[in-house]
Amino acid sequence: VRRKPQRLRNGRHSPLLRSTKSGRAALQALVLWGGVAVIIVIGLLVIFVPVGCLIGVSLTSLRGFSSNYSYLGLWNYVEAFRQPEFWRGARNTITYAIGSCIGQTVLGTVMALVLGGWQARTRRAIAIVFFVPYLVVPAVIAVQLWRFLIDPRVGAITLAIHRVTGHETYFMSEGLVMISLIGISTWMFAPFVMLVVSRSIEEIPSRRFEVIALDGGRSADTFRHVVFPAIGPAILGVALLRLVLMATKFDVPYLFLGSGPLSSKFGPTTVLIYELAYERLRYGEASAVGVMMLLTLFLVIWSVVLWQAVRGGT
Amino acid sequence: VKLVRDFVTASLVVFSIAPIGWLAVSSLRPVSSIASAPASVFRDPWTLNNYRHLLLDTEFVSGMKNSLIVALSVGVLAPTLALVGTFMGRRLSSKMRFASAVFWLSAYAVPAVVVVLPLFMAIHFMGSFNELFILVLGHLCLSFPLAYVVLSTRAITSIEDGLEEVLILDGADNLTVLRHAWIPSLGPTLGGLAMIAFTISMNDFVMARFLLSGRSATLPLVLQGLFDLSYKDWGLICAGGTLGIVAVTVPLLVVSSAWMRRESGGMRG
């Protein structure tokens, strides 16, 4: 309930109210509602305009910025289903998203478990070091750095493998390129998983560790009965988030594969959308693929949310 | 068990930062010796030629300037707008607040490659519009949903019980409530969100790739340009990568140390 400003006994406003002069009301309204207007514009830009644009353009034959286009109905969707490159993109997206999600979840969880064993000050220092690849290495640099390390001519890793085994390894060959891509993504994004899992480890009451220690439990028992039940939901949640984020990743695969035969053969759907829209200027087909990707993503996200709700989870 | 823990920790530390260390070391070696075996690192003379070449003969400095303009704008705007949005959102009914949270969570899942298409078309139709301004808008689309969702959940738990109500009963206006209740309580969260927005913006390649032309290229575009040359000058690429990492790290360190000093000062006081 908003009341009229109270006056002090001496007839003056309280110190808090003295600063709120009536002339500021207009400025206040301007700042606050101006901010809300900008937020609405961002909302329009983030969801309504892109999704509306995508759906609209996916129903047309639009190519480039030509004004000569016609309404095609669902033809672009039918056509996309008939193209082998669509299915190749979908297969690559699934392989890349699941592979890198597993890699990040496993490595991030190991990082978090290892951190849990150190004293607070050391733990903080190690956590900062673990976090470096995620926080301060832009995707462009991360990809160039790893391309440098695995380069067949100058790469330190390639040269080291050659020195030990006597064989030359081509990480950009067809057999290894997807594994290399998943490896780079794991190096970059595992710290994100570490952050979430280590937070849930810190939230375990110390009493539980004391009880199992008093019962003579070993490290394995502590992990099985105390740590794992506590971090399980966090791991599941963060793995789902990483899966969605990796399925929509564009920069790392695009930068790593470059534009060429490797990109056509191993590029995920996001790279296919880019190629269709910005290289071949086939906006209609690119938008149809984009709509199908969005629908699949939302279907996955909301299935899991509903499944959790039905199970009574949070 | 302790030995295993120490070994795994050491391996993970090496795995995390050794590649970056190798990049930095390689940036100080002459181009001719980069291809030689790693053991020769300590035998070869070290040089700053790669850095000199990078700073004088490429677009690195202007790319850095453009990136800092965009990232600082986004770092300030994303948490500020999220604060205003959350503050005004608290006046909505609980159903509307839930709907708005779902909306922004969904926005977070929309891929950047999809968001960029209408912005790309908008640039085409607007012609000579300021490209960096459009990029700031594009980066806000990436950072704002996260900032809004985080702030709206933190606002429930962080603001001291009853403080806001007391101020309103005292007749305080919106800005006073924001200044005396919200900003002090959410200060650390706002600082963290500003750093995240700054980093997302500094690191972004996708939006910049589609929205910018050569004359206003940001740092990731300039670095990618070096990599795309038909002849790969690894010394130049390593120097660019090292300075690019420094460019993201230094502002983060400055802001986070100032923030921690302020927090510890507050605790002492």
Written account of the structure:
The complex is a heterodimer of chains A (314) and B (269). With 314 residues, chain A is mainly alpha-helical. Helices cover 75% and strands 0% of the residues of chain A. Chain A contains 14 helices and no strands. Chain A has helices at residues 15-18, 24-58, 75-82, 84-116, 120-135, 139-149, 156-165, 177-202, 206-214, 219-247, 251-257, 261-266, 269-279, 283-311. In chain A, helix 4 packs across helix 13 (269-279) and helix 5 runs antiparallel to helix 8 (177-202). The longest helix of chain A has 35 residues, at 24-58. Chain A is globular. With 269 residues, chain B is mostly helical. Helix content of chain B is 80%, strand content 0%. Chain B has helices at 2-27, 31-34, 49-57, 60-89, 94-109, 112-126, 131-158, 163-169, 174-203, 206-211, 219-228, 234-268. The longest helix of chain B is centred in the C-terminal third of the chain and has 35 residues, at 234-268. The model of chain B has no long low-confidence stretch (mean pLDDT 80). Chains A and B meet through helix 2, helix 4, helix 5, helix 6 and helix 7 of A and helix 1, helix 4, helix 5, helix 6 and helix 7 of B.
